[in-house]
Every structure is written in structure tokens, then in C-alpha cells.
Amino acid sequence: xxxxxxxxxxxxxxxxxxxxxxxxxxxxxxxxxxxxxxxxxxxxxxxxxxxxxxxxxxxxxxxxxxxxxxxxxxxxxxxxxxxxxxxxxxxxxxxxxxxxxxxxxxxxxxxxxxxxxxxxxxxxxxxxxxxxxxxxxxxxxxxxxxxxxxxxxxxxxxxxxxxxxxxxxxxxxxxxxxxxxxxxxxxxxxxxxxxxxxxxxxxxxxxxxxxxxxxxxxxxxxxxx
Length: 225
What we know:
Blueprint: E1 31-32, E2 40-43, E3 54-57, E4 61-62, H1 90-107, E5 115-116, E6 124-136, H2 145-148, E7 154-155, E8 159-169, E9 175-184, E10 190-191, H3 198-223
Parallel strand pairs: 3-5, 3-6, 4-6
Antiparallel strand pairs: 1-2, 2-9, 6-8, 7-10, 8-9
């Protein structure tokens, strides 16, 4: 699941390229990033990123919501069972939120240039993240017949999810950047052993957090030139 800010650029050494098309300038002043690796990303021009030394992550929101064009996979009642479901339970959604929090603490540790804080204040970037449109390639493990009968389900990957991100100034609340992208775990055939294999979830979160960290470091260096 790729993600944010200067990872909006094509590579870490490539300067940010903003669209000059008037149609790509939003009403809130954010401008579309032309050379983004993401499905969609916008950033506010002329921000002094070097003034920010702290990060406050708001509690991540994880939902079973889907895009309007989403079509649920067909459930084979014969092989999957009558109770098979692609919807995550509340406990699964909460675990995904908890795993996100743990990963941000691992990536933004004491050796990094940004301090994690518990509330927004001056010099702080507020990061809002929502995880949504979670698409699994097999019904939830505890709901399918193969789970109780010790059968096995194999899939090419455990699925995908969309991360929506918003970065705000901690003092003014002004939105400085927005991004959205879909990510997935390893693309290889293997046994599908849980809802959305937790190893894949952690891999996606780690990639996202490292992309954010590197983006902020580069953004601060660019504005100091």
C-alpha cells in the first residue's frame, strides 16, 4: 500500500512537480501532483516543511466501507459454506487500527528526526489516516467452511485496501496535503490463513510509514535550500 507527501513524487530524488492546469487546483488551494506514484495526491504550494519537528497521529479509522462501484465477490455456498462473509468483524477492524499505531511507533522511533506527540501544537503535523475499501480474496477465515473442517484455501494475495491520508498544521488546522492510494500484500500464491493476512497488513503499514518519514525529511531539506 504505497503512500504520502513526497512519496507523491516519482522517486525520492525527483523534485515535486505540481500541475499547471487550472482544473487541477482545488477550491481549498491544494494542487494536484503530476509525478505522483499514488492514485491521487494533492499538496499546498509554498509550505515551509522545515518548521515541523513533531507528528501527531490521530486515531486511524478502519471501516468496512467500499467504493460505490464495488461488487462483492460471489460466495460459493457449497465450498465456502452458508456463513461465509467478506465483512470484517469489529475486533478485526480494531486490530487493524492497533497494528497501525504500533507500526508508526516502530518507524518513528527515538532515532528519527520527528518526535511523536500526544496532542497537536505549534510545529506539529497532524496526520489523519483512514483505511477503507478492504477487499479480501477469500471469505473471512473463521466464517468459511474450510476453517472448521481443517480444509485449506489458497489465493494469490490476501487482498488490498485503500489508505486515505490528510496532513494538517497542528496550530491552525490548515490542510497541507492529501493523498489516496490502494495497496496490497505480497503477490504470490500461498495459503490464505486469516482475514487479511496480518503479515501483509504490517508490510503495507511499514511501507506507508517509511514513505511518510522519508517524504517529510526530504520536504524539510528542500525548503531549507
